[in-house]
Design a protein that fits this description.
By secondary structure, this protein is α+β, with helices and mostly antiparallel strands. The chain folds into 2 domains: 19-159, Pnp Oxidase, Chain A (Roll); 168-203, no CATH class. 25% of the residues lie in helices and 25% in strands. It has helices at residues 9-16, 22-25, 33-40, 88-95, 126-129, 154-159, 175-182, 189-195; strands spanning 44-50, 56-62, 69-72, 75-79, 98-104, 111-121, 140-151. A hairpin with a 2-residue loop joins strand 3 and strand 4. The termini are far apart.
């Protein structure tokens, strides 16, 4: 199959057209009232990073609303919770501190983007304040904000993301079946159904009561 590629910014701009100046004016280098309010009420964000060789990664982060702490108008702290221990995000930050974040609030189509530079912090007073269900993070990603702005809801509206009538979670294979095909290939489907059943939530915060 042959493709006609766009290879220059001039071609791209000719194809897409000029941007409305307001999309540039809305960006700010500090967390103002509305940006801060959004982050304090967001239970979920996506963090994009890239390694020194350009290899990219986007990882989800979630906790109770406000889990990302605002240390000041230019600084955020994201707790590190138990996961798969691949450390893609954290290893990338050690090589390349640039990060991009998208903050979501369930039911809202608009989102908040934050771009900046990150570093890994293993000792700080705010780590105690990030304890959830008895689990205190041993590490946090501290982000120095360089740019933040709100996205409109067009992509969420096109996807009907929060429209429950459009949801079809059973249209794809279960988590247990996917895991058996891709990672836990020697395990039985029954054992994986138990693993990803109700007890899975009990292991979200190791050490919790």
């Amino acid at each position: 199959m042959e493709y006609e590629e766009v290879t220059t910014e001039e071609e791209l701009r000719e194809l897409v057209g000029p941007a409305n100046p307001v999309v540039f004016r809305k960006a700010t280098p500090v967390l103002r009232t509305y940006e801060s309010e959004w982050i304090r009420n967001s239970p979920f964000c996506l963090i994009a990073t890239a390694a020194a060789d350009g290899t990219c990664d986007v990882s989800p982060r979630g906790d109770p609303p406000g889990f990302v702490r605002i240390l000041d108008e230019r600084t955020l702290a994201v707790p590190d919770r138990p996961g798969n221990r691949r450390l893609d995000t954290l290893r990338n930050v050690l090589q390349n501190p640039r990060v991009g974040m998208i903050f979501l609030i369930p039911g809202r189509g608009d989102t908040l983007r934050v771009n900046g530079r990150a570093r890994l912090v293993r000792s700080a007073p705010f780590l105690d304040d990030m304890t959830v269900r008895g689990n205190r993070p041993g590490l946090a990603l501290v982000v120095s904000v360089e740019e933040c702005y709100f996205h409109c809801a067009k992509s969420f509206m096109r996807a009907r993301l929060w429209d429950t009538d459009s949801w079809a979670p059973e249209s794809v294979s279960s988590r247990a079946r996917i895991a058996r095909a891709t990672e836990w290939t020697e395990a039985s489907l029954e054992s994986l159904e138990r693993r990803y059943g109700p007890e899975y939530e009990q292991r979200l915060y190791p050490g919790s009561p």
